[in-house]
């Protein structure tokens, strides 16, 4: 009965999926069927394995030498499981006579790219490998960096897609309970987890948060460092980044590979980044505040030269800066969407030609161009692209506050933002904290 | 759930602010920032002049003169504001010129008004002028446009200040008028066709009224005695042919109390460089001449000020510690004029510039003896 | 960033956050009103007044911290008995009224100060609304989040404050320190002294309401509170050193006027005053946020309601506060209102200390 069922299932499946292959093979007068998806399995390369495997199986009584044979046994496996195995890219060898089957890891089609140099996070001194879409490979990358029994991996699968989530645990550092809880949150989430946003929702975080509570990193070196700091790192299959929970406000300007430099330089670098962050968030707001409501704070010379450059600008500073910021955002986004060869052109057109023309046409003042350029450059100095997005959004809040209340509104906006950041917690662990604070206190 | 609720409340509160809309705020290009204010009185009406840089698109900046008359200063400013369309920000005023006539009547109230006004900063420099204000302002604008002298921060210590020109700023004048133990002197200036301005010395204020005038040498002495930090290279003319350069200076005030009497010795120590001298003078002589001259001038200045009950030299400040505030109230009237002041000058000549002074050759006497023996 | 060790003994992060908060709020509260109060108190020998104020302040902080260190739970509200109407009337309601009064007077003062300094044209009501809205937003967060906000703000502004403290002696003349003779001590019974006495007390109220998780080293916090004395000295004496007593007395905000005299060439901004004023205003807003947070906690425990209910109630109270503050029309009235809340100030502090003492006694009996 099961045999018939199985063959029927396979036939059925074959009708629907043209890439399902079933090949027969005769070894030692026994007929075997080899089943697998052509799109997932490289049949020609797998064939040898199959032959060796079955051959080995035959010779088992004489003492086996094949390494596969030890853990692979012929079994009567449930049909559902076998189907699942097929979808995961495994190969099934079906013994017609005994109606037993063997699930084999074949040589798979080259569906995953190989390990490459990081694209989004560039490092100068530091490991140059980057995560890929294949989470097994990613885990391998991490294992190669931490070769010890303390390093454990916990896996769960979720949803119809059977998406695999792998949690990395460093014994003694990672809070096991927290990992269990997070795992359970993912398992209990009723909807499909498609993107990182769904993880946010599954964890119960607000969708409209300005700060990413589940941040991504591309660098195995960073991921390893985060694990050692007690943060929780996990992989989502098909997402070529490690997801990091419990990042802190310090991660905005610190990154592990910094430590490859001289210490003095590293601290100067931190200062530089902090200044950059301040500029990126505060400068446009400061411009609006000083131009619109509190010009008395500027030095006379500066005030006069700004006055001169704004002479023929027809609208208030708020509108002026919003136009320019919008333009810059457009240029940035366009450069991301377009192929690299064209995006350079966008940079030239947007930055040089448009910038020059817009000042000459007196649509915005020349000083503003400097402000915008400084802001955009400073925005790039933060560690993660996600943090850069946060800063990009925050500056608008400051600009609005500044336009309403001048320099006072500017600092009040800063205060509100600080207060907002300070009250962000993920599972009770605050965002503004020292490395292990909070995570460990939960432990005890 | 909770979070959402108070978020709504917050949004309500914020929208309250937003609904309130924008109030009277103008962008920087609709504001004028005067940098100089002239104040005079025309038959009981205050007459205020402002110099405003007018920004035009050309490379050169032009200056404009605006004026207004009114019963009070603020009224005059209001009248003036009616004349031009832009808002006037007084925050950048760097220089206030007052008519000397005002000083004779007393500027206490005027200074109080400036200190009280929210939009006048505490830091503009203050000066008196003898000229007609209108001419003065025109001359200033003219000079600037022709010669292109920097109009920002003139009269400021960090920029073109010299020791024989007095320099005071608004809050110092205010302090000078209201302090128990010190008074203030305000520079007297006039415009000049070639240069930026001329100095005629300084007017000493007592309770806001001019009581005495100091010439530029007296001003220099005042600055030497009073300003602790700002010693800059100064040339002192001793007589027609001799001139020395001051390099360093140290002032000490020694007070001795004998019952109700106070004895004060002002001890001045100088380090000099000879910069101009007759050939026959040696260092000792130059030094003596200098010491005598300084002593004489200082004593004269001190006596002059004591007679007017005004203290711009900081003499009284240094005995504050011996009295209570109640006693200090009448200090300048009762105690200060009776202080017995003595001046002690000590000078050291550092060198003679690039030339040697052969007159003070130490071997000279010895040489003479030798010649006589021969 | 450098959390670990300071001056030989270890400062835990929790303690550091609390110390930062304590010092910053004190700076925010001190530099506006305190110089005027000191100048009004006596004619001679202000240093004595400053020392008396400073030491009593620190002594009170010490007593409060000592009392709290004996309790197992750092929040006194956890010890409220089942029948709490009596304690509500005798302790919590006066304390709440004191907080409300302080908030009303404070926002009025800060709004006044703001319009003097930067927003000449903005109506005072809107300035008060923006302060109170921000303070409410801060106060609605947890107490920990308030500490962390302070930490971020301190990181962003502390260097400005340090530079300004150094520059505030730019125009100082040493002889203005005198006269320093003390001719009598009658001032102790006079109104300005009593007004100034414990005027900073609301800044350490929060020591009695700390969240549970914190493990504190009360001794460290106490020793750090000694830093207040130099601050108080600076607040009172820098205007006097620049202007002299007789002139400094004339200003509404002497410290601010003193800063306005500092003329710096290298700054992009015209004066330091605005920067310092802004820092003060932020610190003060955090301080108000903390007071409102305590107010919410009191409300929640008084009527035993949910956190949400208390938050809504707080917003309503805040609206009432704003209306009340808007009704104070003149600066003179502000001064009289400061005098009004003096009895409440003394009463609520004594009752708070007695309450802590009572809890300690009960705790002893139970064990």
Supply the CATH architecture of chain C.
Answer: Up-down Bundle
Average pLDDT across residues of chain C?
Answer: 83
The computed structural class of chain A is alpha+beta
Strand content of chain C: under 5%
| Structural class based on helices, strands and sheet pairing of chain C | mainly alpha
> Would you report the number of β strands of chain C?
2
What topology, given as strand order, has the largest sheet of chain A? 5-6-8-9-7
Counting structural domains of chain C, the number is 1
Report the uncertain regions of chain A. 61-71, 440-444
Q: What's the count of strands of chain A?
A: 11
Biggest interface: chains and residue counts?
Answer: B-C, 40 and 40 residues
Tell me the distance between the termini of chain A: 56 Å
For the CA atoms, what is the radius of gyration of chain C?
20 Å
Radius of gyration of chain A from CA coordinates: 29 Å
Provide the succession of SSEs of chain C: EEHHHHHHHHHHHHHH
Write the layout of secondary structure elements.
The complex is a heterotrimer of chains A (444), B (374) and C (367).
Chain A: H1 2-16, E1 20-27, E2 30-37, H2 43-58, H3 79-87, E3 91-95, E4 100-104, H4 135-145, E5 151-158, E6 163-170, H5 176-188, H6 196-202, E7 214-217, H7 220-228, E8 232-236, E9 242-245, H8 263-293, H9 300-309, H10 317-337, H11 340-360, H12 366-379, H13 385-422, E10 425-426, E11 429-430, H14 439-443
Antiparallel strand pairs in A: 1-2, 2-3, 3-4, 5-6, 6-8, 7-9, 8-9, 10-11
Chain B: H1 2-20, E1 31-32, E2 36-42, E3 45-54, E4 62-70, H2 73-83, E5 87-88, E6 95-99, H3 100-105, H4 108-116, E7 125-129, H5 133-147, H6 170-178, E8 184-191, E9 197-206, E10 209-214, H7 216-226, E11 234-237, E12 243-258, E13 261-276, H8 283-307, H9 325-328, H10 331-334, E14 340-351, H11 364-373
Parallel strand pairs in B: 1-5, 2-6, 6-7, 7-8, 13-14
Antiparallel strand pairs in B: 2-3, 3-4, 8-9, 9-10, 11-12, 12-13
Helix pairs in contact in B: 4-6
Chain C: E1 5-6, E2 9-10, H1 13-41, H2 46-70, H3 85-117, H4 124-139, H5 143-167, H6 191-196, H7 218-224, H8 228-243, H9 245-248, H10 254-260, H11 273-303, H12 307-327, H13 331-340, H14 342-366
Antiparallel strand pairs in C: 1-2
